[in-house]
Structures are given as structure tokens and as C-alpha cells.
Write a structure and sequence with these properties.
105 residues, mainly beta, 1 helix, globular
């Protein structure tokens, strides 16, 4: 992955797709930042160079681009993208933030 743009109104992933003779950059449009935040994503979820396995909805024109979604995005090894970087998932969990007995998702 070349770049993750966490911008409003939609997010974008610039994905470098390696072919036999060249590398093509695909521009993939995703959901809004606010929707991704509700799924645990942030602007730092996908640092440049992250290798992804994605199922996308390609452009009808055949141009290198399309739409992506959180549910169809995995790391190269097939594991889920890690979210939240150790932060509480729900606002109510902030009451216990930093306490050893706090259970974080």
C-alpha cells in the first residue's frame, strides 16, 4: 500500500499493484472517516508499506480503481487489520482507562 488518505468525505487507499512488467497504482475509495472511526480505524491504521489482501468493487470502466470496505480488507497473511492501538473501543470504557482491571478490546 502506497498511501492511506483519511480525508472527508471519503477515505482513499492508493494501492500499488505489481504486474509482470510494471507496478500500477490503484485509487480505491472507501467509507467516510467517521464510519471508519466507528469500526476502530484511525489515520494511523494503515502506515505506508502495509501489504494488504483486498476484495474490491472495480470501476466499470476498467481503469485501475474502485471501492473498498473494512470487512473485505485483510493483511497480506489473511489476518485482520489491528485497530485501536490499545485504546478503549467504546466511550464508556474511558472511565476505566489505565486501571489494571480494565478490559480493552
Amino acid at each position: 500500500m502506497k498511501e492511506f488518505k483519511f480525508t472527508s468525505p471519503h477515505t482513499f487507499i492508493l494501492l500499488e499493484v505489481k504486474g509482470q512488467n510494471e507496478t500500477v497504482v490503484w485509487n480505491l475509495e472507501g467509507g467516510s472517516p467517521s464510519a471508519l472511526v466507528r469500526d476502530g480505524w484511525s489515520s494511523k491504521t494503515l502506515p505506508p508499506g502495509t501489504e494488504l489482501k483486498m476484495t474490491i468493487d472495480p470501476l466499470r470502466s476498467g481503469a485501475p480503481g474502485g471501492a473498498w470496505g473494512v470487512a473485505k480488507t485483510k493483511l497480506k497473511d489473511g489476518s485482520a487489520v489491528k485497530h485501536w492501538a490499545g485504546l478503549p473501543r467504546y466511550w464508556s470504557d474511558f472511565a476505566n482507562w489505565g486501571r489494571p482491571e480494565a478490559v480493552l478490546m
